[in-house]
TrEMBL record:
Name of the protein described by the UniProt record: Carboxynorspermidine decarboxylase
Single Gene Ontology MF annotation: lyase activity
Cofactor dependency: pyridoxal 5'-phosphate
PANTHER family the record matches: CARBOXYNORSPERMIDINE_CARBOXYSPERMIDINE DECARBOXYLASE (PTHR43727:SF1), DIAMINOPIMELATE DECARBOXYLASE (PTHR43727)
Keyword Lyase (UniProt): yes
A Pfam entry, by short name: Orn_DAP_Arg_deC
CDD domains tied to this protein: PLPDE_III_CANSDC
């Protein structure tokens, strides 16, 4: 397919940019000996799992279905973490997964022996209570009252008997200085226990493929932990795998005025890019500027009945009109995995740009995809 043949809205994953990210991640593995996993919660487009498998060591799951997806489509190392597991699902999780990370002392007592008996590696998620984030408490695992991870005052020798690894995930879209600071807090609290482990998992939130990311400091952190404690270090980035490797194409359906100019698109913040409202954040838009920066400013919104279904205010060198095609950037991550059919909205097509200008339709959704989610 050619670009002009694509139907909007559609997610377009750009293979060339995906490979660029994967090459950076593979280089980190090769230079440090760490192992990097795809965090599927950010990007689960299994059509490209064979490609990802050529570069990464496996995948990290947040539940049984993601674990099954990785086992079926990637077939490499398979790790899982959940704040709590369903008892009836644990036998299948043990069959599918290599590392099974438990969240609390109660979960350790309930499942550790079962995991060991199944020949798999049990781990414990720890919470250093050391926050490096500002302004986004919803994404801060170290926020006061967090349900994620076990704090040092709950750690005992008996609890860790049989536990083979420790996992901490405290970052969100951050540079390696945040990891370095966090690691100091982790070592201060949990250092005596790290020597007895087989592996340490640094979790996700590392923006490794971002242009300004300090990869040398990351390598230093990895080598320090591996050399000091004699463990295998894992990282499980999600965003870094597909960062800036996808776009969302959308068409202007209507232009109206109500104290300001408003353009209604065939894509929805609430349905197709939920992080815009949850984070919240302003997604990049090609050929646009900040409000008032260019000649014509428009508020861009979706076609749902939610009053707050607004993507943001953008300015353009031209006056938007019906039929214009807009291109939002960085739409590979936390888009397909979080979208929904609120208001009966159709899900966007999923397209792979195999080579620049050469597109392949991977999946087109229709009414049955909407209907079968209901009853």
């Amino acid at each position: 397919m050619k670009r002009e043949e694509l139907r909007t809205p559609c997610y377009v994953i750009q293979k060339e940019k995906l490979i660029k990210n994967l090459e950076i991640l593979r280089e980190i593995c090769q230079e440090t000996g760490c192992r990097i996993l795809l965090a599927q919660k950010a990007f689960s487009m299994f059509a490209v799992y064979p490609l990802i498998g050529k570069y990464l060591n496996g995948a990290a799951a947040s539940g049984l279905f993601e674990a099954r997806l990785a086992a079926e489509e990637l077939g490499k190392e398979n790790h899982i973490f959940s704040p709590a597991y369903r008892e009836e699902e644990m036998p299948e999780i043990i069959r599918l997964c290599d590392h099974i990370i438990l969240n609390s002392p109660a979960q350790v007592k309930k499942y550790k022996d079962q995991i060991l008996a199944g020949g798999k590696s049990p781990g414990l998620r720890i919470n250093p209570r050391f926050s490096t984030q500002e302004g986004h408490e919803i994404y801060d695992p170290c926020a006061p009252g967090s349900r994620l991870g076990t704090a040092i005052d709950q750690i005992t020798e008996e609890l860790l008997d049989g536990i083979e690894g420790l996992h901490f995930h405290t970052l969100c879209e951050q540079n390696s200085d945040a990891l370095s600071d966090t690691l100091k807090a982790v070592e201060e609290q949990f250092g005596p226990y790290m020597h007895r482990m087989k592996w340490i998992n640094f979790g996700g939130g590392h923006h490794i493929t971002r242009e300004d990311y300090d990869r040398e400091l990351l390598k230093k952190c990895i080598r320090h932990v591996q050399d000091t404690y004699g463990v295998q270090v894992y990282l499980e980035p999600g965003e870094a795998v597909a960062l800036n490797a996808g776009i969302l194409l959308t068409e202007v359906l209507e232009v109206m005025e109500n104290e300001l100019s408003i353009a209604i698109l065939d894509t929805s913040a609430a349905c197709h890019m939920p992080d815009v409202l949850e984070m919240p954040y302003r997604p990049p838009l090609k050929d646009s500027g900040l409000p008032g920066e260019k000649a014509f400013t428009f508020r861009l919104g979706g076609p749902t009945c939610l009053a707050g279904d607004v993507i943001g205010d953008y300015s353009f060198d031209w006056k938007l009109k019906c039929g214009d095609i807009l291109e939002f950037g960085d739409m590979a991550i936390y888009s397909m995995v979080k979208n929904n059919t609120f208001n009966g909205m159709a899900l966007p097509d999923i397209v792979l740009e195999e080579n620049p200008g050469d597109f392949r339709l991977i999946r087109r959704f229709g009414y049955q995809d909407f209907k079968t989610r209901l009853s």
